[in-house]
Write a structure and sequence with these properties.
This protein is mainly alpha-helical. The protein is 68% helix and 0% strand. It folds into two domains: 80 residues, Orthogonal Bundle (434 Repressor (Amino-terminal Domain)); 41 residues. The chain is built from ten helices and no strands. Helix 4 packs across helix 5.
Length: 130
């Protein structure tokens, strides 16, 4: 590869997530909610993955200097997948439910959904939330 192409690709790679950070702030993504749900401090997570607390602070702030490797390690330390960190405001219980649902054979999923809908229909509290 020519040096010019390598430099262009490196430049593109360095700025590939510039817009991503702004989008995540706009969507009010809060990846710290997973850490807080486990009663962990930034320092705790930092020690778990072998980085400084400031690295976790930047990652949670979605700072443009945060590295993808940090997000991968963060997710792994909290027993999550990377996509979980950047999903909508979803609780850990909802994530567990989705994982369990995905492990169910396709042929059984409609039955489970029917059961869940039946439970929802018979629960007065669930109709108030909707």
């Amino acid at each position: 590869m020519h040096d010019v192409h390598q430099n262009v690709k490196m430049h593109d790679a360095q700025h590939a997530f510039d817009g991503f950070s702004a989008l995540m702030h706009h969507l009010h993504m809060d990846i710290s909610r997973f850490r807080k749900a486990k009663n962990l401090s930034q320092r705790d997570v930092a020690e778990m993955i072998g980085v400084d607390q400031s690295t976790i602070q930047r990652a949670e702030a979605l700072h443009k200097s945060a590295k993808m490797a940090t997000y991968l390690q963060y997710a792994s330390a909290l027993n999550l997948e990377l996509r979980d960190l950047f999903s909508e405001d979803v609780s850990e219980v909802e994530i567990d439910l989705l994982r369990a649902f995905r492990r169910i054979p396709e042929s059984k999923r409609p039955e489970l959904l029917a059961l869940l809908r039946l439970v929802q229909e018979n629960d007065p509290a669930s109709s108030e939330e909707a």
